[in-house]
Design a protein that fits this description.
- By secondary structure, the protein is mainly beta.
- The chain has one domain: MM3350-like (Structural Genomics Hypothetical 15.5 Kd Protein In mrcA-pckA Intergenic Region, Chain A).
- Helices cover 12% and strands 30% of the residues.
- It contains three helices and eight strands.
- The protein has helices spanning 42-52, 97-100, 155-158, and strands at 12-20, 31-37, 61-64, 76-78, 90-91, 107-112, 118-128, 138-143.
- The chain has an eight-stranded mixed beta sheet with strand order 5-4-3-6-7-1-2-8, covered by helices on one side.
- The radius of gyration is 16 Å and the shape is globular.
Amino acid sequence: MSKHRIKQSEKIYIIKATLSDWSGHVRGLPYRTLAISGESTLYDLAEIITDSYDFDFDHSFGFYDNIRSWTKSIVGYELFADVGQGSKFKSVKRAKVNRIFNNIKKKMLFLFDYGDEWHFVVELRGIELPKENTRYPLVIESFGEASPQYEQMDEEDES
């Protein structure tokens, strides 16, 4: 993901993205605290989340208001809406971070890879002014090691 300087009039959104289990539990699990322009899209946010966990950005994804059961979400944003596959939810490429995360402590589920279903609880922790000579987005805190995105196969497993 490319980093760039932003305008002084833009706000920086501090977002905590915690790898969770399928029930939305996050206690003790790895997290990343990210700084991203509020003018960025949810697509941009998804890219920095996956990058911060050393995942390849190679699967479909969505953001959902129901953290415990994404299929029961009323509000959602999906890449499917952007690629013409039909979706009852809105676009991630047109949804701005500052419109979606409009209250401190607002949470959404970020679901990455509908096959493996990587679940992340994403929460707005703060809004601040950009720091001089800083390029965004960036990871400002990292806790814990995540499992690798893809299981490593032993040579014995391949035969």
